[in-house]
Design brief:
single chain, alpha/beta, Rossmann fold, 7-stranded mixed beta sheet, 3-stranded parallel beta sheet, about 15% strand
Length: about 375
C-alpha cells in the first residue's frame, strides 16, 4: 500500500457522528476535507492528550463509517476501539507529513502542539473565526480563554493556516500582530455548502414564510426576529407570515428560548425546527420570501450562500464577511435596527422593488464551490 502523505484529524467527526447530531457548518467542512483527502490520508484521533495515528487500513475503515453517518456507527467504532488504542502507540514515522486539523479540534490542548513538534509533522489548521475573542459576550463562559489558547497554539505550531474568508484571515493577522507574533504561511479560501440539487421543489406553506438558519445562540440575534414576529402577530393577525427557525438550541440565548417557550403570540406563527434534513432545508429555503440573518458576528455564513444558490433573497446584517461572499445582492441592515428589519420584512411579503432587485441579481450569482477551494489549497500546500 502506497505511503500516505496526509494526516487528517477526524476526532470532531467521530464525536459528532457518535452523538447522532446533524452536522454543523464546521462539520460539513470537515466532511468535505475527508472526502477530498481521505484516500491519501491516515486518520488521527485525539482527546485530552491521548493521540493515535491509525494505519491506512484502519483509517479506511473509520473513514467509511464516518461517511455512512450515525446508522451503525457506534457498533462499528466500538469494534475498532481496542485496535485503535493499542495500534500506533508510537505513531509511526510521521515526519514531513501534512497534518490537517480542520475543526479546531484539540487546539486548546498543549499536548497537540508538543506532538506536532516532536514528530516533525507540518501542521495546517483551518481557522473558522475569532468570534470568542472579538465578541466574547455572545459565547459560553470560559470560551474566550479557550479560544485564545487555540490561536496561541496555532501560532506556536502551524506550518500553514487556511482561513475560510479574507475577513477571518485579516482578523487572525491582526490578532497575531497584537500578540507580537509572526503569521506563518496563510491563505484565504472560501468554503462551500451542500451540493444543491437541480430539481429542488420549493415548499409553500399555508401562508408566506421566512427562514433563519443556525444554532439558537446569542450572537445569531434571534430575539430581534421574535420581537418582530410578536409585533407582526398583533398587527396582522391571521395574515402574519410564518417564521421558521431552523437550528438546534445552543447557548447564551435564554431570552430567545424563553420567548419561544412562553410567548403566546408566537404560537402558530413561529415554528422551531431543530431536526431538519438537507433536502427539507433546501425546499424550505427555496420557498421562502427571504432568508433572515440578523447576526452580530459570523465567521462565514453558509446559509447566505445556500439561499442565493436557490434563488432566495437574503436580508442580512451588514457584516464584512457577508459583503465578501455575497457582494451587493442581499439587503443589508444593522442588527440593532428593529424598525428597519420589520419594515423590510413586511415589504418582502409583497413583490417590492428591493425584493425584485435581488431576484434579478441572484440569477448571476456563482456560489463558491469545493472544487475551487481545493484547487487553491492544493496548490498552496505544495509550497509548504
Amino acid at each position: 500500500m502506497a505511503q500516505r502523505e496526509f494526516l487528517i484529524d477526524v476526532s470532531r467527526l467521530v464525536w459528532r457522528v457518535w452523538t447522532g447530531r446533524h452536522p454543523t457548518g464546521i462539520d460539513r467542512v470537515c466532511l468535505a476535507y475527508l472526502d477530498h483527502f481521505g484516500d491519501r490520508a491516515q486518520a488521527v484521533l485525539q482527546k485530552n492528550g491521548f493521540l493515535r495515528v491509525l494505519s491506512p487500513k484502519r483509517s479506511d475503515r473509520l473513514f467509511a463509517l464516518l461517511r455512512r453517518g450515525p446508522e451503525g456507527f457506534r457498533a462499528g467504532f466500538a469494534a475498532m476501539a481496542t485496535g485503535i488504542f493499542w495500534s500506533g502507540r508510537g505513531n509511526g514515522d510521521c515526519a514531513g507529513k501534512i497534518y490537517l486539523n480542520i475543526g479546531h479540534t484539540g487546539l486548546d490542548e498543549p499536548t497537540l502542539t508538543h506532538w506536532v513538534k516532536r514528530r516533525g509533522v507540518k501542521a495546517v489548521y483551518l481557522v473558522h473565526d475569532l468570534i470568542p475573542l472579538t465578541h466574547p459576550e455572545y459565547c459560553r463562559a470560559g470560551e474566550a480563554e479557550k479560544h485564545a489558547a487555540r490561536m496561541a497554539h496555532v501560532l506556536d505550531s502551524a506550518t500553514g493556516i487556511i482561513a475560510n474568508s479574507q475577513v477571518t484571515l485579516d482578523e487572525f493577522a491582526a490578532h497575531a500582530r497584537a500578540q507580537g507574533r509572526e503569521l506563518p504561511s496563510a491563505i484565504a479560501a472560501w468554503i462551500s455548502g451542500n451540493q444543491i440539487p437541480e430539481d429542488v421543489r420549493p415548499s409553500h406553506l399555508d401562508r408566506p414564510h421566512f427562514v433563519t438558519v443556525g444554532t439558537i445562540e446569542g450572537r445569531k440575534n434571534h430575539v430581534l426576529l421574535l420581537q418582530i414576529w410578536q409585533h407582526l402577530a398583533e398587527r396582522l393577525g391571521s395574515a402574519c407570515p410564518r417564521l421558521l427557525i431552523i437550528g438546534q438550541r445552543g447557548w447564551e440565548a435564554d431570552m430567545a428560548l424563553g420567548m419561544l417557550d412562553r410567548t403566546a403570540a408566537l404560537k402558530g406563527n413561529v415554528r422551531e425546527l431543530g431536526d431538519c434534513d438537507d433536502a427539507e432545508l433546501a425546499r424550505l429555503i427555496a420557498g421562502a420570501r427571504a432568508l433572515l440573518m440578523p447576526s452580530f458576528a459570523e465567521g462565514f455564513g453558509l446559509p447566505v450562500v445556500e439561499a442565493l444558490q436557490l434563488g432566495t433573497p437574503v436580508i442580512a446584517s451588514d457584516l464584512p464577511v457577508f459583503r465578501e461572499i455575497a457582494g451587493i445582492i442581499p439587503t443589508y441592515l444593522e442588527p440593532t435596527d428593529g424598525a428597519g428589519w420589520e419594515r423590510t420584512i413586511v415589504s418582502f411579503l409583497a413583490d417590492s422593488a428591493e425584493r425584485q432587485r435581488q431576484l434579478t441579481m441572484v440569477r448571476g450569482y456563482r456560489a463558491p464551490g469545493w472544487a475551487d477551494h481545493f484547487a487553491k489549497v492544493e496548490g498552496w500546500l505544495k509550497t509548504l
